[in-house]
Amino acid sequence: MKLASIDVGLKRIGVAINLTSDIVTPQNAILRKNRNQAANEVKAFLKEWEIDKLIVGFPSASEEMQRRINHFVGLLDIDIPIEYCEENMSSIEAEDMMKGQIKYKRDGRVDSLAAKIILERYLSKKS
Questions:
Q1: Which intervals hold domain YqgF/RNase H-like (predicted)?
Q2: Which residues contact 26 (CB under 8 A, 6 or more apart)?
């Protein structure tokens, strides 16, 4: 089963995929100009990779972000299963992993690394 995860943010959407075994690969983040454009790009990404299930990072700490994420997921209008996975601290963990690498930039690498962490958490719970 091919899986993808997204880490929905206000400026970027981190993306990661799991196509075989337990290898999770971060992909280029989707830069968010507006909700509809971002939703269309996520849908196109899922279709291009023939993803069977989408895992969405979900913050238990912020009701406002939960509402925004639910709204965004509703815009996707996709016919594959969607599951939510706790994302607490995934972005901070991703930032720590990036420290020491090229100057820290807001290019989406941290966002997609956070999506990778979310998908790895999901997979570890399933095994």
A1: 1-94
A2: 14, 15, 16, 109, 112, 113, 115, 116
Taking only the tens place, the pLDDT of each residue in 34-93 is 999 999 999 999 999 999 999 999 988 789 889 999 999 999 999 999 999 988 777 777
Between 11-15, 41-45, 111-115, the lowest mean confidence (pLDDT) is in 111-115
Residue pair 41/12 in contact by the 8 Å Cβ criterion: no
pTM here is 0.87
DSSP 88: T
Written as one string, the DSSP assignment of 5-23 is EEEE-SSEEEEEEE-STT-
Contacts of 68 (CB under 8 A, 6+ apart): 8, 10
**Looking up tokens 């337990």, which residue turns up?**
22
The full length of the chain comes to 127
